[in-house]
Write a structure and sequence with these properties.
Layout lengths: L2 H13 L1 H18 L1 H4 L31 H37 L1 H16 L2 H14 L6 H32 L3 H8 L4 H38 L10 H9 L7 H28 L1 H5 L1
Helix pairs in contact: 1-11, 2-4, 2-11, 4-5, 4-7, 4-9, 4-10, 4-11, 5-7, 6-7, 7-9, 8-9, 9-10, 9-11, 10-11
């Protein structure tokens, strides 16, 4: 995509105040995750036995959990893990899905047919079933001595496996469309190699839709991680995420609702911000879609 098109997309995006505010909120969440150890008022694993299940107060704004740990500190460190899992798995899916879709669309023929049948097979399996299956299989391999590290790597593997399929199909469709353009034929006639054509002429022109899809993939991965953690199949102590905190708070929902309100609100606002941000990017890169 030419620089002028990126600039025009940026100008259209700035006019969408809701999406712009959502982007700022996402940036704040990322800064909180990066600076978790510096800004959290207490250590995430420090226990105050006299404050077990204490309600919110001036010293502990969000109260304390069943072990007396400060909920605000745990929420901040939970953002660190949830955001890291969402972003890292989305980037892994971006790299693999882009390569897979570009190869399938550019080569075509039998290679394209075989690669697309693999994607169709993965699409036929419900997402949650595939997610749980990959997670359980990876955990059973016993590749890591530490159970908590094995759970974390299993989560990264499972979310990466389910995330690249939609991206690969979209990239393949874009490549099939762009490789018929006249400037691609001109590059071929000048002797440019297929790798050079894909890297220099095709991928830069499809990065807009890819970035938009990436912004929707990140909240989906955060939500899936929270779902698995809520079921007890996710992260294990000492790792903590918003899903882990929601699982712990759900057990005491009636008696101590403050334990689930804060992680639930964090998940809700993060999902909303990412989706509004993605909507803004989609309208900026494709204004005709907004008019339709």
């Amino acid at each position: 995509m030419k620089k002028s098109l990126w600039y025009e997309s940026w100008k259209r995006f700035k006019k969408n105040k809701v999406s712009l505010f959502s982007g700022i909120y996402i940036l704040v969440l990322c800064l909180i995750a990066v600076l978790a150890y510096q800004i959290s008022p207490y250590s995430f694993d420090e226990q105050y036995m006299e404050l077990i299940l204490a309600s919110p107060s001036l010293k502990h704004w969000l109260g304390n959990d069943s072990l007396g740990r400060d909920m605000l500190s745990r929420l901040i460190h939970g953002a660190r893990m949830s955001m890291a899992i969402g972003i890292v798995t989305a980037l892994i899916s971006l790299i693999f899905g882009t390569i897979y879709g570009a190869v399938s669309g550019w080569i075509g023929g039998r290679t394209d047919m075989v690669l697309m049948r693999i994607i169709d097979l993965l699409y036929s399996i419900p997402t949650l079933v595939l997610l749980i299956l990959v997670k359980v299989v990876f955990d059973s391999l016993d590749l890591f001595n530490h159970p908590e590290l094995r759970a974390l790597m299993g989560m990264l593997m499972a979310l990466s496996v389910i995330g690249w399929v939609t991206l690969a199909r979209m990239v393949r469709g874009q490549v099939l469309q762009i490789k018929q353009m006249s400037y691609i034929e001109a590059a071929r006639s000048l002797g440019a190699s297929p790798v050079r054509i894909v890297l220099k002429h095709i991928l830069p022109n499809i990065m807009g839709p890819v970035i938009v899809l990436l912004t929707f993939q990140i909240p989906s991965n955060i939500l899936y991680e929270s779902f698995l953690s809520f079921l007890g199949l996710g992260l294990q102590p000492p790792f903590s995420s918003w899903g882990v905190l929601a699982n712990e708070g759900w057990r005491s929902l009636r008696s101590y609702p403050h334990l689930i309100i804060s992680p639930g609100f964090a998940l809700f606002t993060a999902m909303l911000a990412f989706n509004l941000f993605g909507d803004g990017l989609r309208d900026a890169f494709d204004p005709q879609l907004k008019n339709k």
